[in-house]
Amino acid sequence: LYAITGDTFLTRFTLSAIDIDTGTVQAIADLSPDISAIAVHPTSGQMYGADFYGGSLYRIDKYTGGTTRVGGLGHSTGFAGLAFDPITETLYGPLVRWGPYYATTFYRVVTTSGRTYRVRNYESLLGFSYDSDVLLFCVAESIGSPIPSGYSLVSRNNYNMRGQSTLLGGLVDV
Description:
The chain is an all-beta fold and 174 residues long. It is built from no helices and 15 strands. Strands 4-5-6-7 form a four-stranded antiparallel sheet, with no helix packed on it. A four-stranded antiparallel sheet has the order 8-9-10-11, with no helix packed on it. The two termini are 13 Å apart. The model is unreliable at 142-147 and 166-174 (pLDDT under 50).
């Protein structure tokens, strides 16, 4: 299991491995550029990442933290996460626009070029993940919003969100 760890001021982003049996976190390497979202291709095992300041998609060496730029994402803000649909092997990412309320656009990302295609707009989608049954779950955050924090199930057919649970406290990714 891999994770991006960072400092409080978002000035350093480190690729880390997590031992799922012990919970031990082992730093692999500081990432340059500042990669803040990662996903591993379900078949090839290739890791991809998006830089925090929104410029580009990168291939990442999981063992050294070395990065190779794939291409520009076409956006000036960072993606809140990345994940592959394990059936279609398509990479997706939510692009968050910060303000009084979160505004999120969910994109399909082409791994050979970095080009993005809008799938749908949401009011508050942050992190997301596919489970083993290929159900897409996402986090809906409520900071400054009348929508309660929680997680939702997203339809594979039309990408509509259906609330599953309301949570107290902050939840950033699933």
